[in-house]
Write a structure and sequence with these properties.
Layout: H1 3-17, E1 21-24, H2 31-43, E2 49-54, H3 63-71, E3 74-82, H4 86-91, H5 98-110, E4 114-121, H6 128-131, E5 147-152
Parallel strand pairs: 1-2, 2-3, 3-4, 4-5
Helix pairs in contact: 1-2, 2-3
């Protein structure tokens, strides 16, 4: 869906129902749309708060993008991390590296965006030590998000 059409629909819903908070319900909000919609929300002074689910992305490595999203009203992001261990992420065929995860969380947090990270234990082949890695106090992202939830497979 083109970014301007997203904005037009948001404005129509905002005006018709007096909505000021939106959840963009997408399992993985595309980075290009994240950037374009944020810019249009600011340019057109839409004046809403919003949240979405998003992947950790190599293409979202500049602070200006996160600052723009916050300025556009992004207040919460939900991430599917699945695991904090790089070997397990590779087993899952995830394309996010630990450094990208850390950087995305740090930049979003710095912009004032609340982060919620979802992970799970028990992926086939995962060791107990690997499963416990998110709880390791030496892991630097622990200071960059507010909430961490886990599921057990």
């Amino acid at each position: 869906m083109p970014a301007q059409l997203v904005i037009d629909q948001i404005k129509a819903l905002r005006d018709k129902y007096h909505c000021r908070h939106f959840l963009f319900s997408d399992e993985s909000y595309p980075p290009a749309l994240f950037k374009k919609v944020s810019q249009l929300l600011v340019d057109q002074n839409v004046g809403i708060k919003w949240t979405t689910l998003i992947r950790f992305e190599e293409t979202l490595q500049d602070q200006a993008t996160w600052d723009l999203a916050a300025q556009a009203g992004c207040c919460t992001l939900y991430y599917g991390m699945e695991s904090a261990n790089e070997r397990v992420l590779n087993l899952m065929d995830k394309h996010a590296r630990k450094s990208v995860i850390e950087r995305n969380l740090q930049m979003a947090s710095k912009a004032g965006i609340w982060n919620h990270v979802m992970a799970f234990y028990g992926f086939p082949g995962e060791t107990l030590e690997e499963a416990m890695e998110p709880g390791n106090s030496s892991w630097t992202i622990s200071r960059s998000f507010i909430r961490l939830s886990f599921s057990i497979l």
